[in-house]
Write a structure and sequence with these properties.
The structure is a homodimer. By secondary structure, the first copy, chain A, is an alpha/beta fold. Chain A has nine helices and six strands. In chain A, strands 1-6-5-4-2-3 form a six-stranded mixed sheet, with helices on both faces. In chain A, helix 8 links the parallel strand 5 and strand 6. The longest helix of chain A is centred in the N-terminal third of the chain and has 15 residues. The first copy, chain A, starts with 9 loop residues before the first helix and ends with a helix. The model of chain A has no long low-confidence stretch (mean pLDDT 96).
Chain lengths: 209, 209
């Protein structure tokens, strides 16, 4: 019925994709869960040179996996991140939360003199303790998280900090990596984004590739 | 109240980001709406070398802008694409449609022997005529769109074809660019994704940066 020749089997597409990634990418700096996370992030962006910019703290993979297994909520800075997380992969029907559209956010943003993305984190406070935080879009959200921790906010179990862009992205990820209060995963430089961030969560949530 | 120095004004962040992009990226191959689209795609991915892989048909920008202005629906292959489209930028409260979660899709996928992403396009048929199609995730969706056109499906006004990845992504975008039946925008190679695809729509929808 169709004339074009292409692979139509989703599982086979995944298998071949992951095989190409492992053949081409230099994954020597990563093992176990961390390797799986980096492979899936590469899968999400199509770039096998990503590993050179990826940095995880030694405790990140265990902390993030354990948090998900015990049912920690996943706090996302952007709806695209939340939407990219495959619910059926989550080990404990974890809540996936994005507060950006909460009606209190515009007022909070004015009050804090910050972006809506940063202000939305103020509504995370009661879920922050032991949570998995995922920043896949806004550098201001990642900076504000660090400011909240400075001010005594509860500590998340781990932070995926992969905002993308030209203003503050590289600096906010550098700040997270140097902070050392929480286990972290970053992609240094300008690259990042919601797809990579969601991919990292999907890899942490479930070993199935 | 906070100790870190970073830009907290969203409008200023946009201004400076777009200014850096225009200073660094080689945009000589693009003008008018097309230039605006490419700049916003770069903004979404953080990579100023993107233009070398971007190809638009000469009729793409006008066709896509006109379609949006006359209220054409925006048909998206992935929820992340749909979610990345800023509704307030749309000129005619255009419907943003993603049929991937429709309960008929798993059966259609079995029936067509294809991925769910491709099968979901079968549910676009009655909205396809004159629509803006946005494929930001699945190469199989873009291939299947071309197969549907071969089989006589109504023609969309324009197609944004930016699937990402290692299996079929480059080939499906090449096939769209060589097809010539519909105005197109592609990013050649493996790069692409929902953020870039949504950014292209957001630029086409509204000239405000």
């Amino acid at each position: 019925m169709t004339s074009r020749a292409y692979i139509r089997d989703g599982a086979e597409i995944y298998r071949r994709s992951f095989s190409i990634i492992r053949a081409e990418a230099d994954l020597s700096g990563f093992s176990g869960t961390a390797e799986r996370v980096v492979v899936r992030m590469i899968h999400a962006c199509g770039m096998t040179d990503l590993p050179k910019d990826v940095e995880l703290s030694p405790d990140f993979a265990d902390a993030a996996e354990a948090a998900l297994k015990r049912g920690a909520p996943i706090l996302c800075d952007a709806k695209m991140v939340a939407n990219g997380i495959t619910r059926t992969r989550l080990p404990a029907e974890n809540d996936v939360i994005c507060t950006l559209d909460d009606q209190r956010v515009p007022d909070l943003a004015r009050q804090h003199g910050n972006t809506r993305s940063a202000a939305a984190l103020e509504l995370w406070r009661e879920r922050l303790d032991g949570a998995l935080v995922v920043v896949g879009n806004a550098p201001t959200a990642l900076f504000h998280l660090l400011d909240m921790l400075d001010a005594g906010a509860p500590k998340p179990a781990a932070v995926i900090g992969i905002p993308v862009g030209f203003i503050g992205a590289a600096e906010s990820k550098e700040a997270l990596a140097q902070d050392r209060r929480v286990p972290y995963l970053v992609v240094h430089g300008r690259r990042g984004g919601s797809a990579m961030a969601a991919a990292a969560v999907n890899a942490l949530a479930n070993p199935v590739e």
